Each structure stands twice: as structure tokens, then as C-alpha cells.
Amino acid sequence: MELRQLRYFVKVAELKSFSEAAHQLNITQSTLSQQIRQLENELGVNLLIRDSHHVSLSDVGEAFLPEAMRTVSSANTCLDRIRDVQQLGAGELNLGSTYSFLPLLKETVLQFMKQYPGVKMNICCHSMETLLNMLHEQRIDVALSYKPAFTYPDIESHILFDNRLAVVVADTHPLAQSSTVRLSDLERFPLALPAKGLQARNTFDRIISGLDYRFEVRLEINEVNLLIDLVRASGALATVLSQAALVRTPGIKALTLDQQGTQMEGSFHVLKDAYMKRSTKEFLRMLCENRSYGMALMELL
């Protein structure tokens, strides 16, 4: 049994397709089929059920898959450790970010890519819940988001900086000259809100839960940069976002929301007791040093 064969089996099991797996593995489909058939012959079982249209796991394959995934993951960890010794001259950094956290990463991503050209960066954006599931499945190395409302037993969350939910308007908006606004002020203007499930929206919904306000929500969107552009271009819309997401954004005013419960602590999340890549540590160190709103270096780094 070869590690290569286990990697091939895990990829086919994940994609349920020989052709797509071969494409992602950058090998021919015939090579892939041959290697998995050799694995099955060595084990004396059929791991996969094949027909002309579908690929699925046999009952033995279902039982074998978790062990194969653990073996492949352990081998990847070994390779990552070796690459770490090479002073970040190779390897990959798999980073997950919520949509509202994404604007904070631009400078750090560019700096990291320039300083460590041998390290490939893979960045994906999802909701916090999806990212934490991906972290649990070891599909990403670190997740960046605002602190979740609930704790997860196998995940460590570390605060990067303190932050708050803010009311965001164009600098030509009638509220732009105010430093503080109340929820009742927002009833007078059309709102463009982050989509349900995004952390700024979750915080806002939690704040207004049970309160008798009537807001005119004209738009919901899950892309923060476009949301900011629309608010700035309209001059009439207001939205709610984290203050940190608006650092050095021209044409926009972030106003303090006079309401309890607006805290949004910027955080990173890793698996408990798991090995942290040097590339992950270095990226987080750069992220802390690049920001101007009070990130503090953690002892973990």
C-alpha cells in the first residue's frame, strides 16, 4: 500500500468522479484507475462501486476512508514540517476569511506574497460557520472572522483586536455630520444590509431582536466591497459594518451606534492542540503589525 494510492483514493471519494479527480491530481484517468485498482487488489476488497455514470463508496470503502484521510493528513503534516525547516521557501498557506473580514487582509496578503514567493496562498471566503467546519475538517489552516457567539470544543479562538459595529454612510449622507447615531435615526433612511449569516448582520439582528423598530431594508448583499461602493455612490443608503472593515476607505463615514451589544472582536481560529505552520504564524504576525487599530501580538505567535 502506497501513500500515493491513498491520496488518489481519498480524492476520488471526495469528488465522486475519476475524471475530475485525475484533473485535480494532474494525472491521467487511466493512471488513476490503475493505481486504485492495485490498492483494491492488495487489500482484497472493492473500495469503490463504479458504473458508467457514477462512482460511490462500497461499505468497505466507507469504513476505510476515515483511516485513509488520517494517514494522508499525517503525511501532509510531515511534509509541512519539512518545508518549515526550509525557511518558508515552499509549502502552502490555506486561509479562510469571512466576507466582512476580507478588506483587512489586502496589505498583509501582498506583503506576504512578496516576502515569501515560494509559499502558495489559497484564500477562500465563506460564512463563519462554514469556515469553522472547514477548519475542523483540516481543509484550511486558520480561519479569520469576528468572534463567534458560541464556543466550539475543538477550536481555539484568539482575539486580534477589539472592534464594534458601526453605522456606515457616504460622506454626503444627512447623518454624516453626526458622530453618534441611534437605532431610531436609522428608521428615517433606506438601509442596504449585509446578507443574513454574515457577522455584521448577525450582530445587528441580535441588537434589534425584540425591539420595536421599523427599518426600510432596500437591499441585502453578501459582498462587503460592493456594499460599501453602493452606499458611497447612492448618498442616501445607510448600512452596518464593523469599524475595522472601513480603515482608510474614502468617501465613507463610520458612525458610532449608540446601543448595547455592538462589540465585534476580530479573531483567528485554529484547531486545539494542532500543529501550526510557520507560514500561518508569519502571516498572523504580519497581519497584527500591518493594522493601525490596536492589534496586539499574541504569545501563541
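The above is record 1. Record 2 follows with the same two-line structure.
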Amino acid sequence: MNGESARSPSPASGASPVPSSPTVAPPEDADLALARSLGLDVDGDALRRARRLLAAQPAIDAHCHPGRFFMRGAQMWDPSVAFFAAEDGAFARALADMRAGGLAAGGFALVSDMRSLTLTPQGGLKAARPLAPDELVEDTRRQQREFDAVRATAGVVQVRDAAQLRAAHASGQVGALLTIEGGDFLEGRLDGLDEARARGVASITLCHYRPNEIGDVQTEAPVHGGLSAFGRELVREMNAAGMVVDLAHASFDTVRDTAAIARAPLVISHSHLQPAEVAHPRLLSPEHARVVAAGGGVVGVWPAGIVQRNLGDYANEILRLVDVVGVEHVGIGTDMDANYLPSFDNYRQLPLVLAILAQRGMADDELVAVMGGNFLRVLQACADASTG
């Protein structure tokens, strides 16, 4: 999640226009119309190729907040974060977009430290609000109840592993992988991990914006010098449970320390490479990305408006990361509906992203790897490591 300017259910100023309801025309016709409305030069053959691949293989968004379901029922604690409120009908619209764009599954993310966050005058998120004992625990449970409500929606099914995800895709349902952004709900104890496992949590992002008991975050001064002693315990327990360890928002030292002890591939669910012309703490150096790739992991490319302005820019970031770590270590991680000035702001645009990549030379097997195959491999590898 990134807070500077999250997408609202209605397109904000500068956001890409999208159809308001599904079309009865062939999907490639709607794709071409959408491409024209965005000023993109995407040919029909590339779009037909994208649609064929989306039908045949699961496309996965490693990190998303569809309809901001995690904010339903939340009591606002600070006017600065009021823009995160979930609007009525927002999840239904997000689900329609997923189905229309051919997305098979997403990492539906709770935000464990949400009640600690405020918006800074510079436009970033910071943990600055005092907390009552167990406040983050209880709010995470509220979010889990909201996840239970949205997964009961027709056409959505909770999935916990690669086999269930493939089965959901085959049945035409959207797979919902339950993930938690920030291990803050654990409060420095492993007790809460059993509850998370019982609810089917597939992945935990160790750190978010709040400096926590697990490891250092990218956007704050270090307090642990990397992964803490508790963080090491947590990584080992997550590996034993077959859960995916997500290092988005974690400092380079935290990533390096985690890679040194992990028994399974790691992910950075949503980030991208640091460009030469812009320094931003949420982005990655090539060395940072390579540490995750070296263990067989995947980086989900994030369509953030820090440097990107359109889908062409987003495709450029995917290709740039492929050049650095190899196509087998690149995926998609949109942070959908809670992202900063997103260059890719609606799942109906997913076929366009794949078509642009196809026109820029990606082979079918490479497209399948990036759009979900690599993340499926990590899910399976984490499950295998738990029994090894």
C-alpha cells in the first residue's frame, strides 16, 4: 500500500478512463477501444495473443486491495487518511474489472499497521499515531472479517496454494490469496501466527510503514540493523508453515538478512528499480532485486507514479527488471486501489499491458512467466519447503 494519492473508485484527475460496465462485444474489441482512449498504439493481433494467454494460464497480481475492502467498517482515526475510506459498491466494481481484464487471482492484502498511519505534509504515510494495547491486533481481525465477507461474493474463492489457484482459474472464479501487509499484528510474538494460518493467510509482508519488531523498513531510520532476532524466528516459522515471505517495504539490510536464512524463495510483491534520475526510498537498487532473485524469488513490478505516467512506462519497468534479474524473477504487483498515482489503475488494462510487452518482443512463455507463472512457482516452492 502506498498513500500519497490512492486511487478512488471514480477516476481521479489524470487517471486513465475505463469502461463503467462490462461490454457484450468480443473482449478484443473492448481492449482496442480502451487502447485508443488511452492513446496507445496496440494492434489487434497482440491483443488477441494476450487474451489467449489469459484464458490458458492464470494471471496473478501479487499484491492488491480491491475496492479497499480492508477499510470497510473502519473507524477513522485521523482526517488525513479519510481518502482511504471504502465506498459502497467498490468491491463489486473491482471484481467486475478483474473478470473483464482476465485476472485469475490476487493477493488480497490486509494492512496490519493501518491504525497507526497518518499522512505527512509531504504526502507520504508515516506511523505517527499513539496506539492502545492490542489495537492493531483487533483491527487486523476486523479486516479479516471483511475479507471473509468479500470472499463469500459469487465468483470469488479463497485459495491457499498453487493447485487451488489453478483450479479457481479453470472454474472461472477469481482466486483470493489472503495476505497481510505488515507483521505488526503479531506484536513481537509468534502466538498470532497460528491464528493467521488457521484463517488461510498465504503470505505476510514483514514490514510496512511502521517500524516494528521484525525488521527495518525502507522509509524510516533503521532500528534493528536489518532483520531482528524475532524476525529470524518468524521467517523460520513461516517457511515451516509453507507461507510466502514478502519483503516489500523492507530495507536492503532486512532483505539481505532474510535471504541468508530463508529455506524458500522470497518475494517483493510490489516495487521496481530505482531510476537514475529519481531517488525514492521505496524503490530498489539492482543489488537489492538480485538478492531476491538469487534465491529463486520474484519481484512484482509496481505501477507507481513516482516515475511512471502510463502503461507504456509500466511495460518499460517490467522490461528493465527482466534485463537485471531475468524473466523468471519478474511478476506483477499493482497495489491496486491503494496505490500512488498508478500508471496501471484498472484490471481491464491487463490485456493491454501484455500486448505492449508482446509488441516489444516478449515470447509467449515469457509473458506467461511474468503474468503469473513465476509467482505460482514460488507458491509451490514454499509449500515444498514446508515438508522438506
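The chain is about 40% helix and 15% strand.
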